[in-house]
Amino acid sequence: MYKAIIFDLDNTLLNYSLSELDSMKKTLRDHRLFVNEEAKWEAFWESYTKHNFKHWMNFVNKIGPHASIEEVLISSFRDSLNLHSTQHEHLSRTYWDYFCNTCYFEDGAEDVLHYLKPKYKLGIISNGISVAQRKRLAVGNIYETFQSIVVSDEAGVRKPSKEIFDISLRELGLGNEEVLFVGDSLTDDYHGARNADIDFCYYNRKNDRLSDEYQPKYIVKELQELLRVIGAENR
């Protein structure tokens, strides 16, 4: 029987994609960029997401000069907009402030957490920036819901490494056979759970087709289905 449920955070409990989009639109509004210019906004957003992914991966893999999330954002704006360097810095600060204070839940997440809280220990393992993850949990009024919150930049290790799961298990005081991990990423979450020998529930939010390479113990398309999965396992 499971004694704890551990969640990935972005696009599992919180809708990262919506938070990112909303924060960017507010940022550009505040700086009076692309106001009522939908075509230019769409071209910018396509360019920005491409550059931001590149700079984020370089940051994660310690490639190049990106030593902080601020530098990742400045570089992303710089590569997407032909502006003065100080404007890139201002845009970066505005965006980061909005993002850290924005919390959109995945459908059903609040109800699932409300149901699980009195019955299980709850944890989070997230590849992310601690200040953003912790602030967003606080904005959503769910920070105190979790007995363990492990964020990669604090831990010094990232999913899919086994070590980040070991930290969570130590904080929860449980063995790997006593927890279920829930996440939306096959690269980080599925392989991380396998490395840690922890049961994995794949939150297939986009209803993607899985190849035979992936064999999660459970698959749910909506978070509410998780309650059925856990109930059946723990009967």
UniProtKB/TrEMBL annotation:
PANTHER family: PTHR47478, PYRIMIDINE 5'-NUCLEOTIDASE YJJG (PTHR47478:SF1). Keywords: Hydrolase. Pfam families: HAD_2. The keyword Hydrolase applies. It comes from the Bacteria. InterPro entries: HAD-like_sf (IPR036412), HAD-SF_hydro_IA (IPR006439), HAD_2 (IPR041492), HAD_sf (IPR023214), PGP-like_dom2 (IPR023198), Pyrimidine_5'-ntase_YjjG (IPR052550). Gene3D superfamilies: HAD superfamily/HAD-like, Putative phosphatase, domain 2. This is HAD family hydrolase. The keyword Hydrolase applies. It comes from Cohnella endophytica. One of its GO terms (molecular function) is hydrolase activity.
